[in-house]
Amino acid sequence: MTTVQAPPAGSRALRPDDLCGLLDVPLTAEQLAAATAPLEPGVIVAGAGSGKTTVMAGRVVWLVATGQVEIEQVLGLTFTNKAAGELASRVRAALARAAAVQSSAVQSSAVQSSAVQGAALAEVPPQRGLPAGEPGGGQFEAGEPGGGEPTILTYHAYAGRLIAEHGLRIGIEPQARLLADATRFQLAHRAIRRAPGPFRWLTKPVWMLVADVVALDAELAEHLVDPAALCEHDRSLVVAIEALPKPVAALRDAAEAAQTRLELVELVEAFRAEKRRLDALDFGDQVLLGARLAETRAEVGASERDRYRVVLLDEYQDTSVGQRRMLVGLYGGGHPVTAVGDPCQGIYGWRGASVTNLDRFPEHFAGPESDPAPSYSLSENQRSGGLLLRLANAVSAVLRDVHHGVVELRPRPEVATAGSTTVALLPTYAAEMKWLAEQVQAALDAGTPAPEIAVLVRVRSDFAAVHAALVARDIPVEVVGLGGLLALPEVADVVAMLQVLDDPTSNAAMVRLLTGPRWRIGPRDLAHLGRRAGQLARGPVDQPVGAHDAAGRAGADPDAALAAAVAGTDPSEVVALADALEQLGSAPYSAQARARFATFAAELRALRQRIGEPLLDVVHRVVTTIGLDVELAADPHVRAGRRGDALGSFLDQAATFVDLDGEASVGTFFLPAGGRAARTRAGQQRPERSRRRPGDDRAQGEGAGVGRGRGPWPGRDRVPQQPGARPLDDLRPRPAASAAG
Fold first, then answer.
1. What is the DSSP letter of 176?
2. Tens digits of residue pLDDT in 191-221
3. pLDDT tens, 471-505?
4. 644-656 vs 489-502: helix crossing angle, rounded to 10
5. Rounded distance, CA 198 to CA 265, Å?
6. Taken in order 144, 149, 151, 153, is the CA torsion positive or negative?
7. Do residues 27 and 135 share a domain?
8. Domain for residue 45, yes or no?
9. How many domains in the chain?
10. Of the chain's two ends, which shows fewer C-beta atoms within 10 Å, N or C?
11. What pTM does this model have?
12. Are residues 196 and 306 in the same domain?
């Protein structure tokens, strides 16, 4: 264990400029001022790439090295496990270096005369001494297990630990199960299926309702809004709008959204009842209950303030109202809390984040005398060239007018004229894809490593086209996140096959398979198959096609015609192409189509006999049956583009999946995927980060929206978005109002 020892008498106290040597990085005057600020509440408005993580690590080192806190009394909160790990690593490295500096300084001073001890300590290059036991000195340990460690967690993990330790105070069992993203969707699906109804306004398919229920439940929890209060608000809104003599279309839409949300709240309540029955919590519940503990149990706040003498809050602009109230309840009233954030990077408003938390930090975390907390700014960007920052400053000018403390970003002097931005306006979507691939190829030819190139798109429906354009040039590429993988051809066929096996009524997936390159069924034969499926759903198998239509045309009375059209129909029967595939009937199919239908039906029967096997085994059987593994291995063009990696990533997702009951089945595997697809179409999908392997040399397709990404890629390309040049599958109306949030 490396421990800082008290130096000989005469050594000097630590100075702010000594921090550069301890961190082994140059620090700007702004960074030094923020890192060495007094032990009091404060907010750091850190522009993009301005070195906020370095400042947070430096602040921990400064407070510990100057003896103001012990390392175990430091709490750091951030949003992702990756960010928490990075911050913890930086802090540990800085503390270990400081301990080594101190040890070197003590050993050097021990062989010097007392008259020159102070000078010798100051001359240790490039390091500076850390005296202990003097004003401005302190002791800390780092390096081996058992030494001091800061506590660095995600916001939700901290709320979860708070509940585990103090939940009994509000009637929550400490061993409550935490629901992962997938199991939340599964439980919501179960609650919806069991709901008695009737539901007049909920007209979406179940898989889309699952996404809406999960989203509304999370919104209510993150905003600390009681469902009953939301219902009261919506009922009042509906009454007020209906009382108007001639409400405009926007108001009528708002009333309809409120009516829909009233029914959706019933499903949210059923979802929450299922969670209570299973003693389960999700991330939103953790925030809700953590805030309740903080605001109603003063002893919890006193205990946490005694445990953590200083608190660091990372990415504070992305915290929700519930998280802010939890933190204020625990650490308000002048406790040393340092928040770091940038309102220009507030990208998670769709899931409850409130940039206002950062703007009003000086008020929320005022000092003991209610004086506003001080604010610091970091404005020197460490990553980008000056030309790119000029563009960024022009785009963000409107935000600087709204948010206090936001200043223009400036480059490092040596890169003041570096960087470039190119804007392309192209006539067609295909031309955009071609241009994009050319830009990536040019960057690779210029020597840019592939992992340093990222393509950011606004919607995931672009993924397949971007991927195809890149692999056509034999550029190795990785699509990040399950939502993007599902759009790739080599994965989409496997997904379609699994959907047909799990649900015979998955007609869209069936059509994809039948019209794809393997079976190549033409429109005429497909139309015959569709009519046969309708015939099987309407009545006896020997009933001639069009009988109901004839009955409808025979009756002059519309009511009689409608009654004749549905006579003998079972409402539970759904038209399914899979049924027609098994009973082709006497329709005039082509000889080739009839043979292919028979072969495909035999494949499906064989695979359905294995549907109860472990999920990964079923997926492997599908891949083998459709010959995808052989195709990917045999095609040199496919190998050059490393397209098989997409299938490998999908298999990784299947291998790690566990459903609500601790098992894994095809049906439950697609519930979370379908839910995420629904949120994606609403433009509300949280960016997913890649888990890259060491030495990975692929370019990345990133699922973050343009202007949202925070990835460490020096070179980025984007797809220029042109209204009217969108793919046909994306030409759908955008809802003006949503009941889900």
1. P
2. 998 998 889 999 888 878 998 999 999 999 9
3. 888 888 877 765 556 667 778 888 889 889 988 88
4. 40
5. 13
6. negative
7. yes
8. yes
9. 3
10. N
11. 0.69
12. no
